[in-house]
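Subject: for your reference before the review

Hello V.,

The reviewers asked for a structural picture of the protein, and I figured it would be easier to keep everything in one thread rather than splitting it across files. Below is the amino acid sequence we used in the manuscript, unchanged from the supplementary table.
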Amino acid sequence: MSPTIRAFLAIELPDAVRAYLAQCQTRLQGAGANVKWSRPEQIHLTLAFLGNVPVEDVPALVEAVRAAVAPFGPAALRAMGTGQFPPGGAPRVVWVGVDVLTGDLAGLQRAVAEAAGPFAEKHEDRAYHPHLTLGRVRFGRGRGGGPGDVRSLGRAVAETAGQLGPEFDADEVVLFQSDLGPQGPTYTPLARLPLGQANDQ
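And here is what came back from the structure prediction:
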């Protein structure tokens, strides 16, 4: 059985956006819910999660995605407001939304997912909703206790739903390897695939 890596494709975030996400987490932490917060330096705008990919398939995956993203120009995006999954009731996941100012993020995501599909262990059937995950509520009764005050968390999310965050540019798609460890996952970029190369040739 050939070795595999856990992989996903995403857009990296600049430091200004990561600082904004940390500020949002600080505000929401005051609600008193038991949340496993994402480390801001590890938050990305995920386009496709692939699961386990055979190492021998990585070069072909990279070239397939490179060709798929080449027709797309850079996109201007903005971090925008907090939200939750599910949209109603007790939140399970809290996030910051992403507003598309220019460019075709939805088309880019579809192209990336379709190109990577033959190499992916799992396929996402849900409609794409661009977001930056801030944290996940702990609902287990074991270590860490129960979920805490999720109603207050939901109210805090609603109060900042309309807030505008910093703008940022997306000019490349990055293939990441994800390694799980005792301190959480480590993400290593394996390939950077520029947008808009088809227009440069």
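For the response letter, the relevant points are probably these. The first strand starts at residue 4 and ends at 11. The chain has four helices and nine strands.

Happy to draft the paragraph if you're swamped.

O.
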